Amino acid sequence: MSSSFRISTTKRLMYSGIAITLFWLFVALFAPLFQAMGILQDPTDLLNNIPRESPSINHLFGTDIRGYDVLSRTLVGSQAALKVVFLSTVFSLMIGVPSGLISGYLGGNLDKFLMFLMDTIYTIPGLLLSVTLSFILGKGIINIAIAVSISYIPQYYRIIRNHTNSIKNQLFIEAAQAMGAPPKTILYRYLFLNVIQNVPVIFTLNAADAILVLGGLGFLGLGLPEEVSEWGHDLKEALPSLSTGIWWTTLFPGLAMTSMVVGLSLIGEGISEIFIPSSQNKNK
């Protein structure tokens, strides 16, 4: 009874996370249309607005210190967040999963070298590594996505490598080898589907973390160009005004970032609870 109740509660939380994520995906996709229809103001338009205007009918979320409409910048900021999330997680998947498969299957010196490299990257705090790489690569969606993705590669590598190493000696792999199947076929036809189960959990949790890292880089002035709506940069701009009672310029971008992180985290936790065997959950 308790197990079924836990799974039922987890499913509800996961569905809530999916709803939150779909909301932000909808906003990101249709924000340009809303601007064209006049429903949403241009987030780069400041000449026609009064700076630091409190929330009103004309500006539901108020305006910031530069005169930008906070509502439009908050909603349009979801575009930059989702772009960086998608690209950074895809980059880390494209490198971490194949390298983990090859390393776990072949072993030897290649496995030792990749393990040393990935362990070295893993020991560096993710935000610190992203800050360092953003200095080198500069601003821009692609550059920031690369800077964010590097710290996630070892996570995919280690879980794929360990699973590959544990099942490569099973009978169905030995049978494929005996039948003359080349290593490429064994890797992607027989091993891949057997070691990929836990990747969606890591993917969603890394996506949530990528939003926080992007916000941190934007807050430090190392994120995207200033003309791009981005929550971390907006929080940096709004922070000096908070002490003067101007709360709306920090509240709404902060809530947007928090809600997207919570939504993705709930999806990841739900997937972990439902699809990972219950025996593993009891051992945690």
From TrEMBL:
The membrane spanning regions, by residue number, are: 12-34, 84-106, 113-135, 141-160, 199-225, 245-267
Q: What is the lineage of its organism?
A: Bacteria, Bacillati, Cyanobacteriota, Cyanophyceae, Oscillatoriophycideae
A Pfam family reported for this protein in Swiss-Prot or TrEMBL: BPD_transp_1
Leader sequence segment: none
Coiled-coil annotation reads none
Location of the ABC transmembrane type-1 domain: 78-268
SUPFAM superfamilies, alphabetically?
Answer: MetI-like
Q: How does it sit in the membrane?
A: Multi-pass membrane protein
| Entry's localization field | Cell membrane
InterPro entries, from UniProt?
BP-dependent_transpt_permease, MetI-like, MetI-like_sf
Q: Name the UniProt key words of this record, in alphabetical order.
A: Cell membrane, Membrane, Transmembrane, Transmembrane helix, Transport
State the family it belongs to. Belongs to the binding-protein-dependent transport system permease family.
Source organism per entry reads cyanobacterium endosymbiont of Braarudosphaera bigelowii
From the Swiss-Prot or TrEMBL record, give the protein name.
Answer: Glutathione transport system permease protein GsiD
